[in-house]
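Handout, page 2. Input:
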Amino acid sequence: MKRLTLITLLLALTLTSCRFSPRAAAPLPSTPEAASPSPSVPASDASATSAPVAHSLNPVLDQRYSDEPVEDPRQLSLDIYPTSQPNAPVVIFIHGGGWMRGNKSNVDFKPRAFNLKGLIFVSISYRLVPSVDISTQMGDAAASVAWVKGNIAEYGGDPNRIFLMGHSAGAHIVSLLATDATYLEAEGLSLTDIRGVISLDTQAYDINTLLENAPERTSRTYRSVFGDDPQNWKKFSPATYVETGQSIPPFFLVYSGQSSGRRELCELFAQALEEVGISATIQPAAGKSHEEVNADFGAPGEPMSDAAFLWLIEILAGL
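Output:
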């Protein structure tokens, strides 16, 4: 079958990631016996199994996904990191930066890590606040997914196995994209076009709850993006759209640091998903900072990302 090579390779890992439990979040898993290799290790040496090892191909940079006129075309472009695995699943990554900063180049270990596991990695840029509002950013993200859906087969990808991944503000964007169907529907897609979501360390699952309890400095940051109207906070909160009967994909949720607030917001969102029958897996990264969650994902022997790859095994095995 078309996914056997991916599954055979990843089964060398021995981690287990945990289902959501609101009372006792799972600890970080131990280092696997067969970890992802460092960037300096040749792909041919990467596997502890006899299965063929996927490897990175030459990236395709600055591919436009929208013809909408912008001063810098790279704002509406994406980078494609292909893999040698044929008909590969695809991960679309959306960067963070408080909705106001950042670009698609902030990928660190991720392209190689996903490529070695037989997945294509795509990283997008989008227009930033205050030049545009959050609705426009969501439209940009949806347009990038539509472009990937329609074109990724040309780069060896499977358009029927698309996953979303984001960090910080990008984690909010992918979470909203996978819960509020209106953005994908505007591009002729639906929530069923997304097979799963990896959300790295956002607090914006429920913006009302966040801002009702946030310190002044945090409140100013979020109000500069979402405004002062609680109705807008509700509109842009992924938790708002978690209801029975929605085709919401499974979530893999990571939170950083020792802050009880980050953990509780993550757990509340996971609990809401589970209550309507949507799978939610929490992976704590209590020993990492917000920035390290992004920078370290995919690093050799990194438990957080190894757990995410095992989660992908489970999802892909059922497709």
